[in-house]
Write a structure and sequence with these properties.
The chain has 430 residues and is of the alpha/beta class. It has two domains: 7-148 and 308-369, D-Maltodextrin-Binding Protein, domain 2, CATH 3.40.190.10; 165-306 and 381-429, D-Maltodextrin-Binding Protein, domain 2 (3-Layer(aba) Sandwich). Helix content is 46%, strand content 16%. The protein contains 19 helices and twelve strands. The strands form two sheets. Strands 1, 2, 3, 6, 7, 8, 9, 10, 11 and 12 form a ten-stranded mixed beta sheet that branches. Strands 4-5 form a two-stranded antiparallel sheet. The protein starts with 6 loop residues before the first helix and ends with a helix.
């Protein structure tokens, strides 16, 4: 379970860490905070506002947000900064970057920072589903912040027009195919004007693919991040089902479907059902000009989804005072009231049960219950694909998925090739 400081040296370090903040109240500690978004837009205003609010409550600490582009841009910039001796103090990075950050000795375990019963209780306060990509080796390396699952959105108007119950989403793979056939529309020339189902396969194809593999009763990797199972029969069957939505059933766009344009296709009635992150919930609520529903993903052998999104990490190459201040900021960001407001503002899942018990969240879901879908789906969630040398392993799988979806390889050949490459990459970690 949770480990406290052991030995006199660590005990002395803990006392010095606390004293460092208390002894120099006049000297503000400045923390760089890398956040994965391009500059501008509502998210940056929210983050800037949170930083300002924290500074008002904690005048001895200054927060400097650095907007660092996409998640991929951010991890690249962070690793470059770490190697150059100029690492940030705090960063929001994909939870799947955990092993990479550990292998680079870039981050510190939260277990080595907390010291009081209240802090240890805080460390245990998050949904277990989100901790699957936050803990390894008995330690916690990331704190859930903007976390998500994959959910299904459907256009209730198109359901009515197709003679379907607009209040009931497909519950199984078989129903998904049936609904998709009834929802797919073609013009007089036979060209599709509305696809029944759309699952994006650019950007994060492995993540959307995990919905199918989890529903088919298999995980893609082991808990230690040293093995993958891409060529197992259940994985190949799951990929065959995804391919068949287009080639066999004709209810899904052919080839690679863009991640970024999928919500827009939904708004424009080009797709009746889409799979995407619950983090798109606020975007869809604000921009869909029709009544829509949100549901758990349909079951194959079982229900299932990977978790997703970003964790808060504290970097190791900083002073004791900086780490203490960083821990205070992370605790502040993840407090129930703030986690609830962040979920309301963005559509991400509030990361702790306590956040859902706040009056603010209760009022929100009483008026708009859709956010509870992703929360309730956590009981069926598995860890997002994460291994050592994760970016290269993930690329091997993504390349295989896109080869199968575009028809250049069969699902079996694509997954066998991806597994062969993953084994080559991970051999050194076993």
């Amino acid at each position: 379970m949770r480990k406290l400081f052991t030995g006199l040296n660590r005990y002395a370090a803990a006392l010095g860490l606390a004293a460092g903040i208390a002894a120099t109240p006049a000297a503000a500690v400045e923390l760089s905070f890398y956040y994965p978004v391009a500059v501008g837009g509502p998210i940056t205003r929210i983050v800037d506002g949170m930083a300002a609010d924290f500074e008002r409550e904690n005048p001895g600490i200054r927060i400097k947000p650095v907007y660092s582009g996409s998640y991929q841009d951010t991890i690249a910039k962070v690793l470059t900064a770490v190697k150059g001796g100029d690492a940030p103090h705090i960063a929001v990075l994909l939870s799947t970057d955990m092993y990479t950050l550990i292998d680079e000795n870039a981050v510190v375990a939260y277990d080595d920072l907390v010291s009081t019963p209240a802090e240890r209780q805080w460390l245990n306060s998050f949904y277990p589903g989100f901790m699957k990509n936050s803990q390894t080796g008995g330690k916690t390396w990331g704190i859930p912040f903007q976390r998500s699952t994959v959910v299904m959105y459907w256009n209730k108007e198109l359901f009515r027009e197709a003679g379907l119950d607009p209040e009931r989403a497909p519950q199984t793979w078989a129903e998904l195919v049936d609904y998709g056939q009834r929802l797919t529309r073609r013009d007089a020339a036979g060209n599709v004007t509305t696809w029944g189902v759309q699952v994006p396969s650019s950007g994060f194809p492995y993540w959307l693919f995990q919905t199918f593999t989890t529903q088919n009763g298999i995980e893609l990797m082991n808990a230690a991040g040293t093995e993958t199972y891409f060529d197992r029969p259940q994985v190949i069957e799951a990929l065959q089902f995804w391919v068949d939505l287009s080639r066999r059933h004709g209810i899904h766009p052919p080839g690679v479907v863009e991640w970024g344009t999928t919500p827009k296709d939904f708004f424009e009635r080009k797709a009746a059902i889409i799979y995407t992150t619950t983090g798109n919930l606020t975007n869809i609520r604000n921009n869909a000009g029709f009544e829509f529903g949100v549901a758990m993903l349909p079951a194959g052998a079982q229900r299932g989804t990977p978790t997703g999104g970003g964790n808060l990490h504290i970097f190791s190459r900083s002073s004791a005072a900086e780490r203490a201040a960083a821990l205070k900021f992370v605790q502040w960001l993840s407090a129930p009231e703030r986690a609830a407001q962040w979920a309301i503002d963005t559509g991400y899942v509030a990361v702790s049960p306590a956040a859902w018990e706040t009056e603010r969240m209760k009022r929100y879901v009483a008026d708009f219950p859709a956010p509870t879908v992703a929360r309730d789906q956590l009981q069926y969630a598995v860890a997002e694909l994460s291994t050592h040398d994760n970016q290269r392993v993930t690329k091997a799988l993504n390349d295989g998925l896109q080869a199968a979806l575009t028809g250049t390889k069969t699902p079996a050949q694509a997954m066998q090739d991806a597994q062969r490459e993953a084994e080559r990459i991970l051999r050194r970690y076993r």
